[in-house]
């Protein structure tokens, strides 16, 4: 059926769970583009035949053109929504993506990610007059100044704002300033203990 | 007690836009209003650069005050908490705007280029720079992977057709903060005297007088839907 492959791409993305990104389906993207080219070529043949005097080809041309537009729309939706997912990851993981996620990105998507990083960093630096504001911090309304956290993996030494150095060892528990350890919690190094 | 705890109240701000001095507490209240409105309105509202900048300055000032304070003072932790809360409101407000800018980039940039000089600015200069770069990156990405390889007549990106636009028909709750005469809501007047009157109707309808309200410094609060 016409434009089916493009729809499969969209479905594939739709079916993934939140927060995960399937590998970029380069093969299928290429197949869709090839289908478009074939449709276009056929259309051009029919158009030149019509110009030459043949009649009755118009309906076919219309149908193919509709399929072409549908392909385009689906392909763009696929790319756009992948970008949205990648964008959300920037906010979640910070400016460096974990290797296993990066592996699923296409080369152009990595480029986009880097550009977005730069663009966002520029914006955050330009807020206010004195050095900007990191918007990726303070994601949740603060409830307490200090939080109790447990280390989920060995992370090494960590210097707190008042100059004390603590060692983040697996399964150790600490009582830290929320603003300091928020990013570590998000990276999964620390776990916020709720009693 | 009051002099220490009421740190917001004691810092006078004299950089108010219209020459009026606003206390820091007033600025914070205005910021919170802007934050709520932004959060529940479907489209990007006017920029409040002065509020953001002013509040950031206050935060730096407060942080310096705290550094000077005695260590281990009970009040210090309260102030720290307050700073954290303010910073959250600020970041959340700006994040919310950024999200809208990313989502409706093409529409917002269109509006910006069609804006007349006397109209209020929806984007701050920094946000404008961000929006432009973001839209360039996005278009570049779509071009390089897909559009470039398509047949010639399909290579252009028609933003009017494909780009997402805000849902102006979204329904919002409003709270009238101050009585105003002569405003029609679905053929009923929003009567004077009803200060805590909550109505539910489509954003597009309320928007017309929403902006006229802002000029009069009267705010409708867009509440949670």
Break the fold down into its secondary structure elements and pairings.
The complex is a heterodimer of chains A (195) and B (225).
Chain A: H1 4-15, H2 26-51, H3 58-93, H4 99-102, H5 107-126, E1 146-151, E2 156-159, E3 165-168, E4 173-177, H6 178-187, E5 190-192
Chain B: H1 2-5, H2 7-10, E1 12-13, E2 22-23, H3 24-40, H4 49-68, H5 74-103, H6 105-114, H7 125-145, H8 159-162, E3 171-176, E4 184-185, E5 188-189, E6 198-202, H9 203-215, E7 220-223
Antiparallel strand pairs in B: 1-2, 3-6, 3-7, 4-5
Helix pairs in contact in B: 3-4, 3-5, 4-5, 6-7
Short account of what is shown:
Chain A is mainly α and 195 residues long. Chain A is built from six helices and five strands.
Any idea what the radius of gyration of chain A is?
25 Å
Number of domains of chain A: 2
Instruction: Give the quaternary arrangement of the chains.
Output: heterodimer
Q: Give the termini distance of chain A in whole angstroms.
A: 56 Å
What form of chain A results from the Cα inertia axes? Answer: elongated
Unreliable stretches of chain A, pLDDT < 50, 5 or more residues?
none
Instruction: Enter the CATH topology name of the largest domain in chain A.
Output: Methane Monooxygenase Hydroxylase, Chain G, domain 1
Kindly state the mean pLDDT of chain B as a whole number? Answer: 74
Order of strands in the sheet with the most strands of chain A? 4-1-5
The total count of strands of chain A amounts to 5
Helix content of chain A: 55-70%
**For the terminal residues of chain B, how far apart are their CA atoms?**
40 Å
Number of helices of chain B: 9
pLDDT < 50 stretches of chain B? 1-19, 191-198, 211-220
Q: How do the helices and strands follow one another from N- to C-terminus of chain B?
A: HHEEHHHHHHEEEEHE
The radius of gyration computed from the alpha-carbon positions of chain B, rounded to a whole number of angstroms, is 22 Å
Strand tally of chain B, please?
7
Which percent band covers the strand fraction of chain A? 5-15%
Indicate the CATH class of the largest domain in chain A. Mainly Alpha
**Major sheet characteristics of chain A:** 3 strands, antiparallel
Our estimate of the beta-strand percent of chain B is 5-15%
């Amino acid at each position: 059926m016409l434009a089916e492959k493009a729809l499969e791409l969209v479905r594939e993305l739709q079916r993934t769970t939140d927060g995960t990104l399937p590998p970029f389906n380069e093969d299928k993207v290429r197949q869709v583009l090839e289908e478009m080219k074939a449709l276009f070529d056929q259309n051009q043949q029919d158009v030149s035949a019509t110009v030459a005097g043949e009649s009755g080809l118009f309906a076919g041309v219309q149908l193919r053109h509709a399929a072409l537009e549908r392909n385009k729309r689906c392909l763009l939706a696929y790319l756009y929504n992948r970008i949205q997912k990648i964008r959300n990851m920037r906010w979640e993981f910070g400016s460096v993506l974990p290797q296993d996620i990066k592996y699923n990105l296409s080369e152009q998507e990595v480029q986009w990610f880097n550009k977005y990083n730069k663009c966002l960093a520029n914006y955050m630096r330009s807020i206010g007059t004195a050095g900007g504001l990191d918007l990726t911090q303070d994601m949740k309304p603060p409830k307490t100044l200090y939080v109790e956290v447990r280390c989920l993996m060995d992370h090494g030494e960590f210097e707190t704002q008042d100059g004390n150095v603590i060692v983040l060892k697996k399964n150790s528990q600490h009582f830290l300033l929320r603003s300091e350890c928020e990013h570590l919690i998000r990276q999964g190094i620390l776990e916020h203990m709720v009693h | 007690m009051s002099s220490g705890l009421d740190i917001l109240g004691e810092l006078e701000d004299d950089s108010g836009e219209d020459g009026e001095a606003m206390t820091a507490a007033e600025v914070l209240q205005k910021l919170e209003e802007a934050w709520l409105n932004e959060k529940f309105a479907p489209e990007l509202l006017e920029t409040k650069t002065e509020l953001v900048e002013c509040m950031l300055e206050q935060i730096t000032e407060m942080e310096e005050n705290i550094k000077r304070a005695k260590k281990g003072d009970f009040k210090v932790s309260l102030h720290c908490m307050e700073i954290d809360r303010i910073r959250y409101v600020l970041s959340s407000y700006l994040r919310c705007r950024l999200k809208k800018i990313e989502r409706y980039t093409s529409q917002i940039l269109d509006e910006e280029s069609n804006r007349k000089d006397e109209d209020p600015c929806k984007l701050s200069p920094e946000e404008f720079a961000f929006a432009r770069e973001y839209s360039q990156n996005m278009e570049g990405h779509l071009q390089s992977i897909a559009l470039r390889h398509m047949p010639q007549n399909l290579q252009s990106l028609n933003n009017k057709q494909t780009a997402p636009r805000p849902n102006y028909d979204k329904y919002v709750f409003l709270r009238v903060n101050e009585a105003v005469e002569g405003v029609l809501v679905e053929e009923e007047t929003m009567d004077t005297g009803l200060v805590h009157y909550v109505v539910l109707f489509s954003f597009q309808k309320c928007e017309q007088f929403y902006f006229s309200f802002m000029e009069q410094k009267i705010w409708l609060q867009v509440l949670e839907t």
